């Protein structure tokens, strides 16, 4: 059972997800690991999706009492297979967390620009849409479900020229989330976007190596860069049902570097 302070002067708010099962994509590293751990801490059974990091995923699943499921989200048909396998292993699924994503630096004059653009859209946008499409009949049949899509502040403020594809994919994910929220709320389905800024993960390290940590953290309002553990509690809260009337909303977690 996860505990959250609702005020430093009052009681603790407790979130109990012991009757819930959740599929988290990209859960073998970075933000996904933190989300999976926090969901399990609240009692949820978690399907830990991974692409290639089998050892990390199986270790995490063993530690939190979940299941590790592999899928290459860049390939057509794999998101649907992943959903079917998660449903077969977990039974009723109450929430889907689309966390998996890639960020490929692609100079405009680079030979791999088109290839990297297509791959980025496939993983960051097409795969979440396909997973949601697969999940909707299940959620509708059981009377509802929660969808949390991990986007980025880049969806709103843009990104550097080398990361146009990344920003565009995350902007599309925000629009997808709002469309699902507006279109399926009457059937008990709610959808949210969480938009982190720079977060200390392996994926962000390539950007940090290229531009420098000072560049990555120069515009934050706090004293340290965001960590995966700073993002996970919000995802648990959104998946709990306590925030359903914020469906369609975007939650910014970027240390005050961008407020929209």
Automatic annotation (TrEMBL):
InterPro entries found in the cross-reference section: NAD(P)-bd_dom_sf, SDR_fam
UniProt source species: Caulobacter ginsengisoli
UniProt-listed PANTHER family: OXIDOREDUCTASE, SHORT-CHAIN DEHYDROGENASE/REDUCTASE FAMILY (AFU_ORTHOLOGUE AFUA_5G02870), SHORT-CHAIN DEHYDROGENASE_REDUCTASE FAMILY PROTEIN
Family membership: Belongs to the short-chain dehydrogenases/reductases (SDR) family.
Keyword tags: Oxidoreductase
Name used for this protein in its record: NAD(P)-dependent dehydrogenase (Short-subunit alcohol dehydrogenase family)
């Amino acid at each position: 059972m996860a505990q959250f302070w609702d005020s430093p002067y009052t009681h603790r708010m407790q979130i109990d997800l012991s009757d819930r099962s959740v599929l988290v994509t990209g859960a073998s590293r970075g933000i996904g690991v933190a989300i999976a751990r926090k969901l399990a801490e609240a009692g949820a059974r978690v399907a830990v999706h991974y692409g290639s990091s089998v050892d990390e995923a199986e270790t995490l699943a063993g530690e939190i009492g979940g299941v590790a499921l592999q899928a290459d989200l860049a390939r057509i048909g794999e998101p649907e297979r992943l959903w079917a396998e998660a449903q077969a292993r977990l039974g009723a699924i109450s929430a889907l967390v689309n966390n998996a994503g890639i960020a490929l630096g692609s100079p405009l004059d680079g030979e791999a620009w088109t290839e990297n653009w297509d791959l980025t859209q496939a993983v960051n946008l097409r795969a979440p849409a396909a997973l949601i499409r697969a999940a909707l009949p299940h959620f509708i049949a059981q009377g509802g479900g929660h969808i949390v899509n991990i986007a980025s502040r880049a969806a709103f403020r843009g990104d550097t020229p080398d990361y146009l594809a990344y920003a565009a994919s995350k902007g599309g994910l925000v629009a997808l989330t709002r469309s699902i929220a507006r279109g399926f709320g009457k059937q008990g389905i709610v959808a949210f976007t969480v938009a982190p800024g720079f977060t200390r993960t392996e994926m962000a390290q390539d950007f940090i190596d290229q531009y420098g940590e000072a560049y990555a953290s120069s515009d934050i309002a706090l004293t340290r860069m965001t960590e995966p553990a700073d993002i996970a509690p919000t995802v648990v809260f959104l998946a709990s049902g306590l925030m359903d009337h914020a469906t369609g909303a975007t939650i910014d977690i970027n240390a005050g570097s961008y407020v929209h």
